[in-house]
């Protein structure tokens, strides 16, 4: 069953409170997908990703084969509306692709997720800008890969503060950023970066700026040799860019963050972690089935852990699917999206998903015993475990829990199970 099927397939036409979403003026991301065959195209890419996942992890290298396949399947521009050369896919479609890819190769799934978060910002928050519409057309035509640069100097995971600033002169700008962590920076075709609006602006007065490869120079200064997610190649760079002021998104970053970056990031990341968990469950099922066959149908002692892994994965999928339904049902309702209840819910989605996904993979390790703990063999889940452990530190869960603590007092406890 897919994540969307958890919803009984009715979510795309949901119209909460009788609101006619189409009547709202600002063009949101699409709710009703018009894109054909996305699942089968994603499966084709996933089979390529699976074939190279071990090598990507071992060598901490970019999953180039999977992305060549994703470009051949034209999966990079699916979220872009048809009038700009895309397919008008819904966030649900993107989330499903993230799940399918990460089930095969976590780094491939996460790179795809990070790219799509930036595409969502362009579609939702920059469609009134001719320059950004041109970038979206190019993205579809050339299947450009977008990286994101938010982490800045010593700022850690606080996306709402920047050290670096845009320096404007007439119609041009320069930007110098200490991008301490930037996934696939070396392989990307363009970067979407946060920065202070001006050199005099406070750290929280941020803009988002899109720069294409011709506009910037990267100097590699920190390697990416990590426990997991090794193929994301999230190295540290000194970024130096020039461009014209029209490359700055028309809306302030705080609005883009609230409306798009945070919800889409937490949905797509959660789908990636669920995909990693599903990949581990695939291996636990194969192990338990083989063990039962060898002992004449007798279930091995670790089988209960597979049951637990399945149950936790089901909870995780349901949690993501419900959050996805909620986001898609209020896409055009900017006030509700910016409200404390929705912002808290989507922030906590990230924390819950990361914890549940890690719990699933840990259960599969218990189910498979030494065969799961080994680095080799078809039942190994060590790569899954290493990859999924990145989830709690990718914007640290502690930071999110601390930031949302007061919301626990301000947001009412739900009066109903289904509202
Ligand atoms: C796989 C992966 C890919 C990434 N790709 C990118 C990318 O492409 N572009 C990009 O810009 N960044 C990227 N990042 C970086 C990410 O966005 C965060 O910046 C990073 O995860 C934060 O790391 P940190 O632990 O150093 O910082 P912090 O989140 O600042 O945490 C540091 C420590 O402080 C604690 N802490 C922080 N705030 C609080 C608080 N309020 N209360 C209590 N404790 C707190 C945390 O528990 C932690 O121990 C990536 C990270 C990962 C893991």
Explain this structure.
48% of the residues lie in helices and 12% in strands. The chain has helices at residues 38-59, 64-72, 91-104, 106-125, 130-142, 253-294, 303-329, 334-338, 340-368, 370-373, 382-388, 397-403, 407-410, and strands spanning 146-149, 166-169, 172-182, 190-196, 206-212, 216-222, 235-244. The strands form 2 sheets. It has a 4-stranded antiparallel beta sheet, with no helix packed on it. A 3-stranded mixed beta sheet has the order 1-4-5, covered by helices on one side. The two termini are 24 Å apart. Bound molecules: flavin-adenine dinucleotide. Residues 114, 147-151, 156-157, 181-183, 229, 232, 234, 390, 393-396, 398-399, 402 line the site of flavin-adenine dinucleotide.
Helix content: 40-55%
Give me the number of helical elements: 13
Which stretches are poorly predicted, pLDDT < 50 over at least 5 residues? 1-27
For the largest sheet, list the strands in their spatial order: 2-3-7-6
The major β-sheet equals: 4 strands, antiparallel
Q: Overall pLDDT, averaged?
A: 91
Describe the structure concisely for a colleague.
With 419 residues, the chain is an alpha+beta fold. The protein has helices spanning 38-59, 64-72, 91-104, 106-125, 130-142, 253-294, 303-329, 334-338, 340-368, 370-373, 382-388, 397-403, 407-410; strands at 146-149, 166-169, 172-182, 190-196, 206-212, 216-222, 235-244.
Write the layout of secondary structure elements.
Blueprint lengths: L37 H22 L4 H9 L18 H14 L1 H20 L4 H13 L3 E4 L16 E4 L2 E11 L7 E7 L9 E7 L3 E7 L12 E10 L8 H42 L8 H27 L4 H5 L1 H29 L1 H4 L8 H7 L8 H7 L3 H4 L9
Parallel strand pairs: 1-4
Antiparallel strand pairs: 2-3, 3-7, 4-5, 6-7
Bound molecules: flavin-adenine dinucleotide (FAD).
The site of flavin-adenine dinucleotide has 22 residues, from β1, β3 and α12.
